[in-house]
């Protein structure tokens, strides 16, 4: 993606805020596992720092499970824009570890895990096994058919700038970014990769410094720019 998914704009707020809001429709306890130095918006949730982020998503799941008070937890990823409270409630109502099976692929990051699975995850990590699917198999999970739950599209995410931008175009009524350049009127341009937006404004990035919401971008022109974000252009070196 080229940038932190948690901060991608989605329906007027950072994506992680949207996901947490959907979870609040279904649960009374939310734990967000973040990297040690990751900045997050203000969230109505407990923030836990991943002590082993280099070990991948299984380590993050372990952190979350070790810090919950309920017997089961619904685990999801940041990039879950289509998540609904009904889907979460339906999965948790099974009262056991469970995951959707979509065309033969187990959706490990939109699944229910038992709190006790945290200790199992630690043992797997110590054995060099890092797949969340290994954890589900160890705790004897059940596979759930998409037809058995409401809103199975809840598991859909995006793993590329193009996938994110296409999802926004289908769901946002105002998919535009603002471009500011000294001595020029501000421009409203369609969302796209940073390269797309600069090209639409006839700007050569080699001749200017480019800032996305006040953060200077050096390289990385393939990153997505979402609705409501601001690109500021200044002469190089200023």
How does this model look, in words?
The chain has 238 residues and is of the alpha+beta class. It folds into two domains: 5-157, Spore Coat Polysaccharide Biosynthesis Protein SpsA, Chain A; 163-235, Beta-grasp domain (Ubiquitin-like (UB roll), Roll), CATH 3.10.20. The protein has seven helices and 15 strands. It has a five-stranded mixed beta sheet with strand order 10-9-15-12-13, with no helix packed on it. Strands 5-7-6-8 form a four-stranded mixed beta sheet, with helices on both faces. A hairpin with a 2-residue loop joins strand 12 and strand 13 (215-217). Helix 2 (57-65) runs antiparallel to helix 4 (117-126) and helix 4 (117-126) crosses helix 5 (132-138). The chain is elongated. The chain starts with 8 loop residues before the first strand and ends with a strand.
Task: Itemize the secondary structure elements and their pairings.
Elements: E1 9-10, E2 13-14, H1 15-24, E3 31-34, E4 46-49, H2 57-65, E5 72-76, H3 85-92, E6 98-102, E7 105-114, H4 117-126, H5 132-138, E8 142-144, H6 161-171, E9 176-181, E10 187-190, E11 192-193, H7 194-200, E12 208-212, E13 215-217, E14 224-225, E15 230-235
Parallel strand pairs: 3-4, 6-8, 9-15
Antiparallel strand pairs: 1-2, 5-7, 6-7, 9-10, 11-14, 12-13, 12-15
Helix pairs in contact: 2-4, 4-5
């Amino acid at each position: 993606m080229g940038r932190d998914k948690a901060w991608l704009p989605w329906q007027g707020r950072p994506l992680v805020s949207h996901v947490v809001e959907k979870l609040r429709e279904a649960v009374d306890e939310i734990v967000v596992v973040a990297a040690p130095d990751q900045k997050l918006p203000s969230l109505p949730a407990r923030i836990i720092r991943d002590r082993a982020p280099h070990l991948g998503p299984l380590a993050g799941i372990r952190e979350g499970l070790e810090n919950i008070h309920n017997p089961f937890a619904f685990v999801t990823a940041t990039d879950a824009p289509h998540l609904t409270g009904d889907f979460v409630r339906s999965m948790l109502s099974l009262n056991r570890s469970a995951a959707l099976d979509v065309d033969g692929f187990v959706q490990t990051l939109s699944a229910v895990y038992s709190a006790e699975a945290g200790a199992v995850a630690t043992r797997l990590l110590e054995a060099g096994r890092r797949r969340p699917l290994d954890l589900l198999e160890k705790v004897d999970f059940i596979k759930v058919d998409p037809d058995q739950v409401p809103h199975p599209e809840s598991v859909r995410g995006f793993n590329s700038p193009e996938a994110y931008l296409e999802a926004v175009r289908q769901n946002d009524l105002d998919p535009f970014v603002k471009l500011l350049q000294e001595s020029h009127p501000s421009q409203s341009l369609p969302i796209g990769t940073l390269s797309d937006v600069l090209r639409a404004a006839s700007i050569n990035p080699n001749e200017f410094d480019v800032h996305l919401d006040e953060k200077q971008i050096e390289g990385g022109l393939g990153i997505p720019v979402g609705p409501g974000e601001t690109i500021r252009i200044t002469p190089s070196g200023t």
